[in-house]
Amino acid sequence: MPSFAQFVTFKDDGFTVPTPTGEHNYTIDTISPLADLDTDRDAVLEFSLLAQGNVHLTMTIKHNNFKFLDHNFRPPEPASPQVWREIIAGSRLQLQGNEIVVAVGGTGNVELSDFTLTYHAQTPG
């Protein structure tokens, strides 16, 4: 069955982890439903990232505890935000309720924003 690319944007406003209150975990729960998601095809998550200091960054899809990003940043990192992309198997996503848990360890922080998820959608037929 043919499919086409679909995308959702979310969490345009930036946030920093650890948070100003010292929390090392942040849950992004504002992802729109993924209309007609084709779980047999991969998806691409893209976002803006600025790492400062010695930082261990992980991202996990909450409903199935799937860790799709696990990376250590070490200075010197670029001084301006970079675009980061991760490929996620469509089978790890669901039509709705996809929450991403961002966790940071180490002695620095990570600024994140402008998330876009591009995925394949099944066409009716």
What this model shows, in words?
By secondary structure, the protein is mainly beta. It has one domain: Jelly Rolls, CATH 2.60.120. Helices cover 0% and strands 54% of the residues. It has strands at 3-10, 15-17, 25-28, 43-52, 55-61, 66-73, 82-88, 100-106, 109-122. The strands form two sheets. Strands 1, 2, 4, 7 and 9 form a five-stranded antiparallel beta sheet that branches. It has a four-stranded antiparallel beta sheet with strand order 3-8-5-6, with no helix packed on it. β5 and β6 (66-73) form a beta hairpin. The N and C termini lie close together (8 Å).
Brief synopsis:
By secondary structure, the chain is an all-beta fold.
Q: What features would you highlight for this structure?
A:
single chain; 125 residues; mainly beta; five-stranded antiparallel β-sheet; four-stranded antiparallel β-sheet
Number of strands: 9
CATH architecture level-2 label: Sandwich
Q: How much strand content do the residues show?
A: over 45%
Give, in order, the helices and strands.
EEEEEEEEE
> What is the terminal separation in angstroms?
8 Å
Q: How many domains, in number, for the residues? A: 1
What general form does the structure show?
A: elongated
Secondary structure layout:
Layout: E1 3-10, E2 15-17, E3 25-28, E4 43-52, E5 55-61, E6 66-73, E7 82-88, E8 100-106, E9 109-122
Antiparallel strand pairs: 1-9, 2-9, 3-8, 4-7, 4-9, 5-6, 5-8
